[in-house]
């Protein structure tokens, strides 16, 4: 009867039936990764609640969750459930180059995640070490790179800057068309 919904890589929502009220007691919630029970965390929840979001969890991890109704009126047995968080989504997982012309091309990437604050698109001709950077808002998944040299191969690297400060990069090669 205790179950989870809205499971992500770092959180899930627990739901349970209304057993207590504000006046008749409270719940003690204990949860830990099944592989490391010593990392148990405990939380107390008002008797009026029937749901709670647990966050700051590890990705791809199974958690053992125990809900203990602490009632001053009736005895309720503890309720348990197991919830496995999802794998952490990584962006960019793919970078696509399209609409290539002599002086520009279009760069797009996926997936777009809420956890990404911004993207940096670095590009420069190969071989060479002159690199330019475009900053792209984290809500967008494409940009146009312009003012390029015709008939040139460019290395394009899309870096996702996560809100946590972590960064993930993926590169692709792009070739501009021959000029007139």
TrEMBL record:
Its main location: secreted. It holds the Pfam family fn3. Residues 1-89, 91-179 form the Fibronectin type-III domain. The keyword Repeat applies. Keywords: Glycoprotein, Repeat, Secreted, Signal. The keyword Repeat applies. It is found in: Secreted, Extracellular space. GO terms for cellular component: extracellular region. PANTHER family: FIBRONECTIN TYPE-III DOMAIN-CONTAINING PROTEIN, TENASCIN. This is VWA1 protein. It comes from Platysteira castanea.
């Amino acid at each position: 009867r205790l179950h989870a919904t809205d499971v992500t890589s770092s959180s899930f929502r627990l739901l349970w039936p209304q057993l207590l009220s504000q006046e008749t007691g409270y719940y003690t919630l204990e949860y830990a990764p099944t592989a490391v029970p010593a990392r148990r965390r405990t939380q107390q929840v008002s008797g009026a609640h029937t749901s709670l979001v647990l966050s700051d969890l590890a990705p791809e991890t199974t958690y053992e969750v125990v809900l203990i109704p602490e009632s001053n009126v009736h005895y309720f047995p503890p309720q348990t459930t197991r919830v496995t968080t999802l794998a952490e989504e990584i962006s960019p997982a793919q970078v696509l180059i399209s609409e290539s012309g002599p002086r520009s091309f279009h760069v797009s990437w996926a997936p777009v995640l809420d956890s990404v604050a911004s993207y940096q698109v670095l590009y420069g001709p190969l071989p060479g070490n002159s690199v330019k950077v475009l900053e792209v808002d984290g809500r967008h998944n494409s940009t146009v790179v312009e003012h390029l040299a015709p008939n040139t191969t460019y290395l394009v690297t899309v870096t996702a800057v996560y809100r946590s400060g972590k960064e993930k990069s993926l590169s692709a090669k792009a070739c501009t068309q021959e000029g007139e």
